[in-house]
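Let us practice reading a record.
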Amino acid sequence: MSVRLTFSDPVHLDLEVPPGLAEDFRKALLTLYEVAAETLHGTVQSWADHRTELSEVLAARERLTLLGAALDQVGWSWMFASDPIELTAQRDVILDGLKTALLDCRQHLGELWSSAGYRPQPPAGIGEATDRVEQLQALLAAHSSERVTATPRTVVST
């Protein structure tokens, strides 16, 4: 399974996310959705108590809607048909997904090193975890340019 990010006009970029990272990306979207839901809940409470503006509630609802739409297309669980699934999402949703996946992978890498203690050999899985971090860093660097302002299209395939 892989994810291809495509940014439409005016700048066109194609990038293939390696199969091992596609699940990380979906999990990151799920994490972002959970945070957005909690944010909306808190914002509605603040609005009801007259501590915030309605515009903040609407912005939090819009963020939750965008993430929900992305998950509807990618899948709430990792069960895909054999055909690619197209995901159309705003640039910040895609970049936030990549950033969250990177943070999760870095944390896992740190946990692996911590579990190794002072052993002379690197812990099992360290090479794969390091590769995932490096691949996500490269993806994020390739898509963080301020020149890219168009709405991205993501294609997820098996």
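A brief commentary: The chain is about 60% helix and 15% strand.
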